[in-house]
Amino acid sequence: MANALQEQLLKAGLTSKQKIKDVKTQKKRNRKANVDDGSEALKQQVAIQKAEQAKRDKQLNEQRFAEASEKGLVRSLITEIKKQAIRLPSDGEIKFNYTLLNKIYPLYITNTLQQQLLRGKLGIVRLEEHSYLVPHRLAERVNLLVPDWVGYLWRADTDGPQPKDEEDPYADYVIPDDLMW
Fold first, then answer.
1. N or C end of the chain: smaller count of CB under 10 Å?
2. At 151, phi and psi to the nearest 5?
3. Which residue has the higher pLDDT, 168 or 77?
4. Sign of the Cα pseudo-torsion (58, 59, 62, 68, in order)
């Protein structure tokens, strides 16, 4: 028996099958519309916090950029980048991808340039829609003043070697730095 009251109302002639169907569909719609798992307020709170953090970060970056601009450091950085940039080879066969501001940029380089990038002798700086290979020290300076320009900068692990998991079945297999997928 689905609903005894509905059956009694049908027998008494106080309602019809169509009205019962309509009531059931309306109940379903109301249930779906009123579903609140309590996470909506949490989602809004997280979104507000992220927006505030992004706003603070943007203000801080603008402040750093303004301070550096006042000192003329940014202009000197731009000229230094263009002066010290290593020319990208026209016959580069290796595709080197780097990420900058949530966007992936490719560079076609030679094997020697790839090794220099992976060993931390070079860095990649993106300026005015162009990618430049620069010495590591210059990339570090750019990272201090305008971090939004640095696409790739090798950093040594400050923590030292990672602790090994005794139960890791792949602990004996070393992953090479220049692994290409």
1. C
2. -90, -40
3. 77
4. negative
Residue 44 lies in a domain: no
Structural domain range at position 116 = 71-152
On whether residue 158 sits in a domain, the answer given is no
pLDDT of the residue at 160: 46
Residues of the chain by 3-state class (helix, strand, coil), percent to 5: 50, 15, 30
Is residue 61 included in any domain, yes or no? no
Q: Is 143 within 8 Å of 137 (Cβ atoms)?
A: no
Mean pLDDT (the chain) is 81
pLDDT at residue 164 greater than cutoff 70: no
What is the residue type of 1?
Answer: M
Q: Chain centroid to CA 39: how far? A: 23
| Strands 94-100 vs 130-135: parallel, antiparallel or unpaired | unpaired
Q: CA quadruple 101, 103, 108, 111: dihedral positive or negative?
A: positive
Number of domains forming the structure of the chain: 1
Let me know if residue 9 belongs to a domain.
no
